[in-house]
Write a structure and sequence with these properties.
The complex is a heterodimer of chains A (323) and B (534). Chain A has 14 helices and no strands. Chain A is mostly helical and 323 residues long. The longest helix of chain A has 36 residues. Chain A is flat. With 534 residues, chain B is an alpha+beta fold. Helix content of chain B is 33%, strand content 20%. In chain B, the strands form five sheets. Chain B has a six-stranded mixed beta sheet, sandwiched between helices. A five-stranded mixed beta sheet of chain B has the order 7-8-9-1-10, sandwiched between helices. In chain B, α15 packs antiparallel against α16. The chains are: A mainly alpha (323), B alpha+beta (534).
């Protein structure tokens, strides 16, 4: 197992180099300039000499290949550089947002799992009954509804209902407080995006749980278990569910990785200062360095999530473990 | 807008007037924290370098400037008062080439160091004469300044190479933060990008990057009794919908940039008298800039036809219901004494109320030039007001000239790259957005030598008029020269056209008192006179 993990870790190096080359040169194809946006982006007059000076200070006047090797050298010396927009270290900028994104991803995953597994099981066990139809409608609605749209509905619903019942409209906080500083305020901000994204996320997982469990329930060993008189609850929980979870785990893990950097619109709707919002801002500001490092971070998250899933597979399925 | 919402908006406006009236009478209350939302992000904290309101709104309250727009009368574009100077803003001596400022003796930096004339000199030296390699985004505004001297600890003198009407407004720019000389000497010229030590009404507490900036009351602020607030919190909220909801849900009391009319109406409808609306003309304008290097726009007849076909008066009436544009004006901010009167405007191409006549003239010009217009309008991918105005322009040209126009919308970075580097456009929506109203400086955009004139053309006659205008000390002469200049750049030579001036709408929670709307979202942002009536 350890040899397998080591091999997977070594494969990370060419993946990261490939991603680095790709993101560096692709970004440079987009026209625009961080200095022009900073100094003259809002329509004010900016002296062209000042723009040139800003470009020089950021190293943007250097040949592309020099800039590329500077970028790679940063990894060798463990210096990811500074944001071209704020001038603060990239590690500092990302660190602040990482915490929030991680919490939302964990909370959304928890919401998704809490909804998806029981509903998926119920739907499979009660196949083609009205319960199954209700669950399937609920999960299809989740897939069809974008989480940001659901987020907008949640906020408007909160504003209108609280004004109606309490006399004053209420909405979730729009500035982030870490959970250890003020748990109530933290949760009152993050529970809503977690529900909005967790619902969509659960919809996919519910359907996957249902179909995987239905497949397992048709297996010979399940029939054997029934034939020998085991009660249905034990058959489902002990024999069928664990084996049907393999594809569900994959879906949950990939969605988790996606949530870490891909909650772009939902973060905007709830004004969350997460990695998705930082992504949008960096691209919009032509902050090459920040964008590059964020892409690399997402690559690392995906690679490690996949590794985690593989290890989990081995734990769930003895055939993988023993091979 | 429905009849009902119109009524609601009007009620709110009347309410706003009453509230403003009562502000004058009510005694300010101390205490509370003002939460406000900011729709743009902070690059660095250095006002001398940056230009975005994303920096001004959260950071300006930590700093003072030598002079500022009168916070009690910010609507008046020529009413300037002392901030760290004493008495009235000086009139020029020696034919308008010497300005002596007495400096207050009770100003302290937040680290406790007293502020003197040497700090003002060091600051203004950095702005006006930055050493090689040091950025100063507004040094061009101070081209006339010859020297700055600290005559003693409490007196600073500026000497100009020639008298100019641009100097005092340029001094009042909200970006001219006063820095401590000792900070500049000890830490260098980059230190203020990441550190704050000002003399403003609030002391910096923390900046949670991308989320908020927090400040607390400065107990040693030089205007005694102010600020009234215990603190401020500027919350970053890039999405317009979030900013509107934040005010509705009372997560923020105000947004200082401005909302479109629909959001004003929504807030008024939802919250009634809990919302006060302040409105003002805005020192920002969208322009229509033809590329003089691209055929057929190298022909002045075609360029004039483009502006003649626009019904600005009709556009003002209808667009002001859906977008943040309203006022018909020439090259100067409409409420300034140097701005063209409606009668003067009506003599310019495209400003006549006889739209049919203007369009007939436009068609005649195109016929003379032998041109059937079929081109691309380059625009910025921002709804308010870019895309609204762009779409309106296309409709005007279709109705007025039978032109076939396609709109090419680009996100901000490639949009600017097209204007400034690639220059591969036919006609573009362009912009001129300034802070302090400084007409003589603000209209440089049309000069053939201006770095922000994206038409790739100009007019030698207009350049010559401006050269005279810049060195004129007589307001009457300045006004007359501006009229000549205006006639050249938006009519006879049609370097670029003015569409409609922006209109600023600030709905805010009614408990926010003391803040008065200014004609720019950069102005009146020190917040020392704001208080909460809770």
């Amino acid at each position: 197992m350890s040899k397998y993990i080591l091999k997977r870790l070594l494969m990370l190096i060419p993946t990261l180099i490939g991603a680095a080359i790709f993101v560096f040169f692709l970004l440079r194809l987009v026209p625009g300039d961080v200095c022009e946006l900073r100094l003259a982006g809002t329509g004010l007059y900016a002296d062209p000499a000042e723009i040139a000076l800003c470009q020089k200070n950021l190293g943007l006047d250097q040949p592309l290949i020099v800039q590329f090797f500077d970028f790679l050298w940063g990894y060798v010396v463990f210096d990811l550089g500074d944001s071209m927009w704020t001038g603060f270290p990239v590690v500092h900028e990302i660190g602040l947002r990482f915490e929030l994104s991680l919490q939302v991803a964990i909370m959304a995953t928890a919401v998704a799992v809490i909804i998806a597994i029981p509903l998926g099981v119920i739907s499979a066990v009660k196949q083609d009954t009205w319960i199954d139809y209700v669950v399937r409608t609920f999960s299809i609605a989740g897939i069809a509804m974008p989480s940001f749209w659901l987020g907008i509905l949640i906020i408007l619903g909160l504003l209108i209902s609280t004004q109606h019942f309490l006399g004053e409209p209420w909405m979730p906080p729009i500035d982030y407080v870490p959970i250890w500083e003020d748990p109530m305020r933290n949760l009152s901000q993050l529970i809503w995006p977690a529900v909005a994204t967790g619902y969509r996320y659960s919809a996919v997982a519910t359907r996957m749980t249902r179909s995987a469990l239905l497949e397992v329930l048709r297996e010979d060993y399940v029939r054997t278990a029934r034939a020998k008189g085991l009660i249905e609850k034990i058959i489902i929980n002990r024999h069928a569910l664990k084996n049907s979870l393999l594809p569900v785990v994959t879906i949950i893990a990939i969605e988790f990785a996606f949530l870490m950097g891909g909650l772009v619109v939902t973060e905007q709707v709830f004004n969350l200062n997460g990695l998705g919002k930082l992504f949008v801002e960096s691209v919009g500001a032509q902050d090459f360095n920040m964008t590059q490092q964020l892409v690399m971070l997402v690559v690392v998250i995906f690679v490690f999530t996949n590794l985690f899933v593989d290890v989990l597979y081995a734990w769930l399925d003895p055939r993988i473990r023993y091979s | 807008m429905t009849h009902l919402t119109t009524k609601l908006a009007l009620t709110a406006l009347i309410g706003a007037g009453l509230v403003i009236g009562s502000i004058a009478e009510a005694a300010p209350k101390s205490g509370g924290v003002l939460n406000y939302v900011v729709g743009s992000k902070i690059p660095s904290y250095d006002g001398h370098v940056e230009s975005t309101f994303g920096m001004i709104h959260p950071i300006r309250p930590f700093y003072s400037t030598l002079i500022r727009v009168n916070p009690s009368n910010p609507a008046d574009p020529s009413d300037f008062v002392c901030d760290v100077c004493e008495g009235d803003v000086p009139k020029g001596e020696e034919g308008g080439t010497k300005f002596t400022f007495k400096i207050r003796k009770d100003v302290k930096f937040h680290d406790g160091t007293p502020m003197t004339a040497h700090d003002v000199k060091a600051t203004m030296d950095k702005v006006v004469f930055p050493p090689k390699g040091v950025a100063s985004n507004r040094k061009a505004f101070f081209r006339a300044v010859d020297s700055i001297t600290a005559d003693n600890d409490y007196q600073v003198t500026f000497k100009l190479k020639f008298p100019t009407g641009t100097f005092i407004p340029a001094l009042a720019l909200p970006f001219n933060f006063i820095y401590a000389k000792k900070d500049l000497d000890a830490h260098g010229y980059q230190w203020h990008k990441k550190n704050i030590n000002g003399t403003g009404p609030f002391k910096f507490v923390q900046h949670q990057k991308g989320s908020f900036v927090e400040g607390v009351k400065n107990p040693t602020y030089h205007f005694k009794g102010q600020p009234y607030l215990d603190g401020i919190k500027a919350i970053s909220a890039p999405k317009l919908a979030v900013r509107v909801q934040a005010i509705r849900g009372d997560r923020a009391a105000i947004e200082f940039r401005g909302f479109p009319p629909k959001h004003r109406d929504d807030l008024v409808k939802a919250l009634g008298d809990k919302i006060t609306v302040q409105e003002s003309d805005w020192n920002c304008v969208l322009m229509m800039t033809p590329n003089h290097k691209v055929k057929p726009f190298d022909d002045v007849r075609v360029r004039r036809a483009l502006t003649l076909a626009i019904d600005r008066w009709g556009g003002s009436k209808y667009l002001s219901r859906i977008a943040i544009v309203k006022t018909v004006g020439g090259v100067v901010y409409p409420n300034h004494e140097f701005a063209a009167t409606p009668e003067e405007l009506s003599k310019l191409a495209g400003y006549s109320k006889d739209v049919k006549g203007s369009r007939a003239e436009a068609k005649k010009l195109l016929k003379e030039a032998g041109v059937n217009l079929n081109f691309e309008l380059h625009n910025r991918g921002v709804d308010q007001p870019y895309k609204v105005v762009g779409t309106w322009l296309i409709d005007q040209w279709k109705k007025g000239l039978g032109a076939k126009v396609k709109q090419r919308v680009q996100p901000s970075p490639p949009f600017y790259a097209t204007l400034r580097k690639k220059k591969d456009f036919d006609v573009s929506v362009d912009f001129n957005c300034q802070s302090v109203i400084n007409p003589i400086a603000d209209i440089t955009k049309f000069l053939s030598t201006a770095g922000n004139n994206y038409s790739q053309g100009g007019d030698a006659k207009a350049d010559a008029i401006y050269a005279k205008l810049e060195k004129s000390a007589d307001p009457k002469e300045q006004r007359a020269l501006i009229r000549q200049y205006e006639k050249r750049v938006i009519d006879d030579a049609m370097v670029a056209a003015i569409t409609l001036w922006w209109y600023k709408i600030n709905p805010h929670r009614s408990y926010v008192k003391g803040w008065k709307i200014a004609p720019s979202h950069y102005l009146n942002q020190h917040l020392d006179n704001v208080w909460l009536d809770k």
